[in-house]
Specification:
four-stranded antiparallel beta sheet, mainly beta, 10 helices
C-alpha cells in the first residue's frame, strides 16, 4: 500500500511539472449597457479550471490543457456563451470583449417555479409536485420537465427527490428524516436563489458524490448576487394570489464588503382549490468580507415562514357529487373559511462560509450551517367522538348502495336506495366541516371530544463540511469533500385548539383501559391548549460523508472516477411511556447504524466540437431514511425487521449536438433500486390478524420490504434557431418505470399487542412485480415555438402531451391475505373467481393529459433602469385532469373488495389528486 501511494504521488508530481505558463483571458460586458459584468463564471468544460470576472469584467484562466477545449461563460440572467478553442502550450489566448445578452425568458423561470411549488411531506407521497424543480436549467428537456410537465407532477426518470441532492452554499438541504429537500425553507426568495447550477444524473460535481437524479447547487454568496435593486409585484390564481418581492445587492465595494438582502410576501385567502389559504413571509440576508485576494468570509441567513391550507384527495364518488375543486378539509366559522389541515413550515438557517483560493489551481471552501425550527401539520382529533370529516364513508350514498347482508356464509347485496338518496341530499347540504357543531358539542360536555391538534417535528441540525478543488495538472483534476451532520429532532402532538372544550384526556379511547394511556408516567393527564400529548420522542442522528473525484481531460476524451464512503446512525429517545408499548417506548432505544459506499465513472468523447457522446454509470448503497427505519416511531423504538441498505445503480448514454442553429441531446437511461423499504399507516378491514377472536379490522402500520424498482427510457431535448427571432423547441420522454421484483409485507397490528401477542405479522410476498411505479407520467412530449424580438419583447407557446400515468397500488392487496378468509387458519375463500380477482387487482391507468401554455414578456431600458413584465396562461383549454392518486387498502381481501364494487360506486375507491385548471400569472418588475 505504501509503495502504491508513493507511486501515485510521484505520478501526480510528474504531471504537475509538465505544466507550462499558458493563459486564457477575456473581458465580459453587458451587450446593452456596455458595462463590465462582475463575478461572471468562465470555466473549461470537463475540468476543474475556472475563473470569475473582476470589477472590470476581466478573467484569466491559467495553464489550461493544450488542444481542443470548450469555454463556457455563465452569468445568471444572461444567455450562456460557448467557445470551442484550440489551446497551445506557452501561448496566451485572448478572446477580447465578450458580449452577454440578457435572457428575457429568465422571468419565466423565476415565476413558474413558484407556481409549481407545493411542499413535500404531506400525508401521502403522491402529493409531491416539486421533483421537476431540480431540473431547472437551460437544457431543452430539463426546461420542459420543470415548467411544462411539472404541472402534471412529472418526475425525471420517475425518480423521487431523495435520489437527488440540493445544496445551498455547499450545504445539503436534503432532510435526514426522509431524504428530501423542504423547498419551503427558501420559498419566495427567487431572486436571492437564482444563481443555480444543475448537474445531470451522476455526472461529476464539486459538492458531493451525488445521487442518480442529479445535483442542484444554489449560491447565495453576497458578491454573486446581481448588483442593484429589483422590485416585483405578481398576481396569480394558483396556490397564492399575490406576491411582492424586493431584492438588493451591493456588489463588492472598494473596502472589500458586499451584502445582499431580499424579502417577499405571498398570500391567498383562497387558492385555486376551495379553502386553500396561503400566507408566506420570506427574508434573506448575506454579508461577505473579502479579507484579501485569497480569503473571503460569507454569512447567509434565510428565514421563510410558510402556512398553507391543504387540499383533500377525493374518491370518484365525491368528485362526481362536488366537482374536482372540492376540498373536504374546510368549513365556515364566523363567516370565514377555516381549514382543518394547515401545514406550517418555519425553519430558519444560517450558513457561514470561508473561501480560500490556495493558488490559481486550488481552492478550499469550508462551511458551517445551523438550522432550527419546526414543521407542523394540523388535523382534527375525534377520540371518542364521531368522525367530523364530511366525506366519512357512512355519510355518503355508497355506504347504502353497497350494503350487504353478511349473516350467512355468502354476502348478499341488498342496496338501500332510500337511505342512499337521503345521504346524498344530506351530504350536498353539509359538505363542509361544521365547526359550530364541534364547539357546541364540546361546550355541552365541558371537555373536548373533538379538538384541533398538530403533528410537530422540531429540528435542530448542525452541518459542517469542507470542499477541496484542485487542477493537479493540465490533464488531472481532483475534488474531495468531507461532511458531518448532527440532528436532534423532536416529534410530538401539540394541542392547538380545544374548540370550546375545557380539556382533553391524554388517552386512546379505542384501546382497552389498561392500554389507553399515552404516557404511563402521567396517567389520565388533562391536556390544555399548547400542551404536548399523544406521543413525544426525540430522534438523534449522525451522518459522516466523504467523497473523492478525479477528472481526466484529454484532447478527444474526458473521463472521471468518483468514490464515496459514509456512516449513518439513528437512535430514538422516547419521552413518553406508552401503555401499549411500555417496554419499548420510553428512554433511549438501541442505536442503529449503516456503513455505505459508492463508485461512479463516466466519459465524454468529442467527435468534433459539435458532436459529443457522454456515458455515466453509478453504483452506491444508501442508508434507509429515519422515516422508513422504524415500524411506528411515535410509540415504539422497534425498527423494521431485516432493515438493510438500499442498493442503487444508474447509467445513461447521450449524444449531444451543438451547432449554431441546432442544439440538442438524445439519451437513454437505466436505473435500478433494490432493497428499499416503505412504511404506510391506514385502517384495514378484512385482514387475517391471526387471533382467536373474530377481529379482522384494525389501524395498522404497513411495512413493505425488499422493494425493487426499475426505470428505463429515452430522453430527447432540442432547440432549433429557425431565424434570428424564431426558435422551435421539442422534448420527449419515452420511459417505463416498474417494480422489478416482488416485495415482502409486514403489518404492525396494535390489537395483537392488547392480547399479549407480537404485533408484527408477516403477510409474506407481495406480488407487485411488473406493476407500474406511480406518481409521474412515464411518457411526455412537448413542442414549442418562441418569437424573440430585437426590441426586447418575446412571446411563446408550447403544447404538451403526457400519458402512462398510473395509480399507486397497495402492496397488502397483492399478498395471499387477499384470498384468505379471516379467522379460518389461512384457508382461501371458496368462491374466488380468478378472472374477477385479476380485474380487481388491475392497476388503474389515469387519463392522458394535454396542456397548452402561452407566455410572453417585454422589457424596457430607461435611464439606466430596466422595466418589464412577464405573463403566462397555463392549461389554456381548461382541462380537468388527475395527476395521481392511491388505492385505499381498507378493503384488504377479495370478498370485502368485491362487495365494495357491487353498485359501481365504490365506498373505499381510490383517492385522486387533480392538477390546476386554467391558470394565469402576471409579474411586473423594475431593476435599478
Amino acid at each position: 500500500m505504501k509503495k502504491l501511494l508513493l507511486s501515485i504521488f510521484l505520478v501526480l508530481i510528474t504531471l504537475t511539472t509538465w505544466a507550462q505558463s499558458t493563459e486564457l483571458r477575456g473581458v465580459v460586458v453587458d451587450s446593452k449597457s456596455q458595462l463590465p459584468l462582475f463575478n461572471v463564471t468562465a470555466s473549461l468544460s470537463n475540468t476543474n479550471l475556472s475563473a470569475n470576472t473582476n470589477e472590470q469584467g476581466e478573467f484569466v484562466i491559467v495553464n489550461p490543457a493544450s488542444g481542443n477545449q470548450t469555454l463556457l461563460i455563465n452569468f445568471t440572467g444572461y444567455i450562456q456563451k460557448r467557445f470551442v478553442l484550440e489551446i497551445t502550450i506557452g501561448q496566451t489566448t485572448d478572446l477580447g470583449t465578450i458580449y452577454l445578452e440578457e435572457d428575457v425568458t429568465t422571468e419565466q423561470q423565476l415565476s413558474l417555479i413558484t407556481l409549481t411549488e407545493n411542499d413535500l411531506g404531506d400525508d401521502n407521497s403522491g402529493s409531491e409536485t416539486t421533483s421537476g424543480l431540480l431540473q431547472a436549467s437551460r437544457d431543452a428537456f430539463q426546461q420542459a420537465a420543470a415548467f411544462n410537465w411539472g404541472q402534471a407532477r412529472f418526475r425525471v426518470r420517475s425518480l423521487d427527490n431523495e435520489y437527488g441532492n440540493t445544496f445551498i452554499n455547499g450545504i445539503s438541504m436534503n432532510k435526514i428524516y426522509d431524504g428530501r429537500p423542504q423547498y419551503s425553507n427558501w420559498g419566495g426568495l427567487n431572486d436571492a436563489t437564482r444563481n443555480q447550477e444543475f448537474i445531470n444524473g451522476s455526472m461529476p460535481n464539486d459538492y458531493t458524490f451525488g445521487g442518480i437524479l442529479g445535483v442542484q447547487a444554489i449560491n447565495t454568496r453576497a458578491s454573486f448576487i446581481r448588483t442593484g435593486t429589483r422590485v416585483s409585484l405578481s398576481g396569480a390564481n394558483t396556490n397564492y394570489n399575490g406576491r411582492a418581492m424586493i431584492t438588493h445587492g451591493s456588489g463588492m465595494t472598494k473596502n472589500g464588503w458586499a451584502y445582499a438582502a431580499s424579502a417577499s410576501y405571498r398570500m391567498a385567502n383562497e387558492g385555486f382549490f376551495e379553502g386553500t389559504d396561503y400566507d408566506a413571509k420570506s427574508f434573506f440576508l448575506a454579508i461577505e468580507k473579502k479579507i484579501n485576494n485569497n480569503h473571503s468570509l460569507n454569512l447567509s441567513a434565510i428565514y421563510a415562514q410558510n402556512s398553507r391550507g391543504k387540499n383533500s384527495p377525493n374518491t370518484q364518488e365525491v368528485i362526481d357529487l362536488m366537482g374536482y375543486k372540492y376540498n373536504s378539509y374546510w368549513g365556515w366559522q364566523n363567516g370565514k373559511k377555516r381549514n382543518s389541515r394547515d401545514k406550517d413550515v418555519e425553519e430558519p438557517f444560517f450558513i457561514l462560509s470561508h473561501y480560500w483560493k490556495i493558488s490559481e489551481k486550488s481552492s478550499l471552501n469550508t462551511n458551517v450551517a445551523y438550522q432550527f425550527g419546526k414543521i407542523s401539520n394540523t388535523r382534527l382529533e375525534y377520540n371518542g367522538a364521531n368522525n367530523p370529516d364530511p366525506t366519512y364513508y357512512k355519510n355518503l350514498p355508497s355506504y347504502y348502495l353497497n350494503y350487504h347482508d353478511t349473516s350467512g356464509s355468502n354476502p348478499i347485496w341488498m342496496p338501500d336506495y332510500t337511505n342512499a338518496e337521503k345521504n346524498r341530499v344530506d351530504f350536498l347540504n353539509n359538505s363542509q366541516i361544521n365547526w359550530d357543531r364541534l364547539y357546541q358539542q364540546n361546550i355541552s360536555k365541558g371537555y373536548a371530544v373533538n379538538a384541533l391538534y398538530a403533528d410537530v417535528m422540531q429540528d435542530n441540525q448542525l452541518t459542517a463540511n469542507t470542499l477541496f478543488n484542485t487542477q493537479i495538472s493540465n490533464v488531472v483534476g481532483f475534488n474531495a469533500g468531507l461532511t458531518y451532520r448532527n440532528l436532534r429532532s423532536e416529534s410530538y402532538q401539540e394541542m392547538i385548539d380545544l374548540l370550546g372544550g375545557g380539556y382533553l384526556l391524554d388517552n386512546d379511547l379505542f384501546l382497552k383501559d389498561e392500554y389507553a394511556d399515552a404516557d404511563l408516567n402521567n396517567p389520565d393527564r388533562k391536556i390544555y391548549e399548547g400542551d404536548k400529548y399523544g406521543y413525544n420522542y426525540i430522534m438523534h442522528a449522525n451522518v459522516v460523508d466523504l467523497f473523492t473525484q478525479f477528472n481526466f481531460n484529454f484532447n478527444k476524451i474526458n473521463f472521471y472516477l468518483g468514490q464515496n464512503v459514509s456512516y449513518t446512525d439513528y437512535q430514538r429517545e422516547g419521552l413518553y411511556k406508552n401503555a401499549l408499548y411500555a417496554d419499548s417506548s420510553y428512554g433511549k432505544g438501541q442505536k442503529i447504524s449503516f456503513e455505505n459506499y459508492g463508485l461512479k465513472g463516466g466519459a465524454t468523447y468529442k467527435l468534433t466540437g459539435q458532436h459529443i457522446f457522454n456515458f455515466n454509470a453509478s453504483y452506491y448503497t444508501k442508508a434507509p431514511s429515519i422515516r422508513n427505519s422504524y415500524s411506528n416511531a411515535r410509540i415504539s423504538d422497534a425498527t423494521v425487521d431485516g432493515l438493510t441498505d438500499e442498493k442503487v445503480f444508474g447509467t445513461d448514454l447521450s449524444y449531444i449536438i451543438r451547432t449554431p442553429k441546432l442544439k440538442g441531446r438524445i439519451g437513454a437511461y437505466f436505473n435500478q433500486i433494490k432493497d428499499a423499504t416503505e412504511i404506510a399507516f391506514f385502517y384495514a378491514d378484512g385482514i387475517d390478524v391471526q387471533m382467536d377472536d373474530d377481529t379482522s379490522s384494525d389501524f395498522v402500520s404497513e411495512v413493505t420490504r425488499n422493494i425493487s424498482k426499475q426505470s428505463m427510457g429515452i430522453e430527447l431535448g432540442a432547440e432549433y434557431q429557425a431565424t434570428k427571432t424564431i426558435k422551435v423547441t421539442a422534448a420527449a420522454n419515452f420511459g417505463q418505470a416498474i417494480y422489478s421484483d416482488n416485495a415482502d409485507v409486514y403489518l404492525n397490528v396494535d390489537s395483537r399487542r392488547e392480547n399479549g401477542l407480537n404485533p408484527m405479522v408477516s403477510y409474506g410476498t407481495s406480488y407487485i412485480k411488473n406493476y407500474r411505479i406511480a406518481g409521474s407520467p412515464q411518457q411526455a412530449y412537448s413542442l414549442g415555438i418562441e418569437y424573440r424580438d430585437p426590441n426586447y419583447w418575446w412571446v411563446g407557446a408550447n403544447a404538451n402531451f403526457l400519458t402512462d400515468l398510473y395509480l399507486d397500488i397497495s402492496p397488502l392487496l397483492r399478498t395471499n391475505n387477499f384470498f384468505n378468509e379471516p379467522g379460518q387458519g389461512g384457508a382461501a375463500f371458496p368462491d374466488v373467481d380468478t378472472n374477477v380477482a385479476q380485474n380487481l387487482l388491475k392497476q388503474e391507468k389515469l387519463d392522458d393529459i394535454f396542456l397548452l401554455n402561452v407566455q410572453g414578456g417585454k422589457s424596457w431600458r430607461i435611464k439606466g433602469k430596466t422595466f418589464g413584465f412577464f405573463a403566462s396562461v397555463n392549461n389554456v383549454l381548461g382541462l380537468e385532469y388527475k395527476t395521481g392518486g392511491f388505492e385505499q387498502a381498507r378493503n384488504a381481501n377479495y370478498r370485502e373488495l368485491l362487495m365494495d364494487h357491487a353498485s359501481g360506486t365504490r365506498t373505499f375507491g381510490p383517492k385522486y389528486f387533480y392538477g390546476y385548471g386554467r391558470t394565469y400569472f402576471l409579474n411586473l418588475y423594475i431593476n435599478f
